[in-house]
Amino acid sequence: MKITKRTWGLIALVLGSLVFMLWLADLLHFGKIAPGTVPFKAEAGKGREFLVQEKTFPKELPVLAQVMSQSLTLLSSQVPGRVTRVDVEAGSRVRQGAPLVALSAAEFQARLRQAQAGVSQASAHLAQISADYQRYQRLLKEGAVSPREFEAMEARYRSAQASLTQAKAQVQEAATLDQYTLVKAPRDGVVAERRAAVGDLAQPGQPLLILYDPRDLQVEGEVNDEYRSRLAPGMPVGLTVPAANYSGKAALAEIFPISMSQSRTFKVRTERLAIPGLIPGMFARLTIPLGEAKGLLIPRAAVRRVGQLTMVEVMAEGRPGSRLVQLGKEVEDQVEVLAELQAGERILIPSPK
Asked: Which of these CATH numbers, 3.10.580.10, 3.30.2320.30, 3.40.720.10, 2.40.420.20, describes 32-59+294-349?
């Protein structure tokens, strides 16, 4: 019987499916490294042996965090006006009271002159009324004017006093508005961001600058709810800020009493830090101590990496053989082994080249 091309195609499909199923069942390896050890093609004596033992080491929780500033201040204008001068740039250090941004002040200066003129006019009017009031006081004693006439004069005198008081208040208000055209630094600090440029029209409440105090920085992170009972204010934690080349210790100052429902985490903040080069927004890492743990630690120098695979050379019958291992956290110059290695086994640490 003649076999057609269609029949050959079906046979090839069946054979291919069979090979694929055997591969899925891990019965065919095609170059995969099987669990266990394989002979290591290296000269004997190239390195030293290390006895794998269970050790106690600190258990720590790494927490991603960032540098933040509670003193971050948004500086804005309290009056509308055109920006005429900006005296600082981002990164500028300023002292308390230093001028930062100036607005057009012509309108407010005109108001101030008008209010001052009103004070002069009210003062002159009061001086005239005061003289008449004193004269009416003498005439009332002499009986030359009636009590009703004196009361009318006294009312005019009180009104003139009130007019002068009101005029002075208007001067004070106009002077205050005129002062608002010059935005000054409320405290010592560093300009984090400049949002104003000459010619911009500033409105009340519109941020012009952002200022922060470099001596008033903290690190804030989020911790899983399950660790809340392990934390307490004043607890020392590890702190690393790679961008500032800093690694050290800091104490927890704040532990937020509420949790975020979406992430099931709560915030923690360190004490205030005075670290050179620290800037709000920098990436940081907190390391929270959780007591001690037991596990297998081996030198990092014993680990060989092939792509994403991690291997060690396990001694068997006096010869090393490669074995895939699963690694955990690093502890100084050692690394934790989570699987595929047992206490009592010996591994080879290659000699430095």
From this structure: 2.40.420.20
pLDDT of the residue at 109? 64
Evaluate whether the domain defined by 62-71+214-291 bears CATH number 2.30.29.30: no
Q: Identify the CA nearest to 195 among candidates 104, 90, 72, 79.
A: 90
309, burial (CB in 10 Å: exposed 0-12, middle 13-18, buried 19+): exposed
Whether pTM exceeds 0.70: no
Distances (CA, A) of 253 to 41, 62, 69, 265, 318: 56, 18, 14, 17, 55
Which tokens belong to 177?
């508005």
- Strands (E) across 159-303 are located at 182-184, 189-194, 201-202, 207-212, 217-224, 236-241, 246-255, 265-270, 283-299
Share of the chain above pLDDT 70, in %: 85
Task: Note the Cα 115 to chain centre separation in Å.
Answer: 47
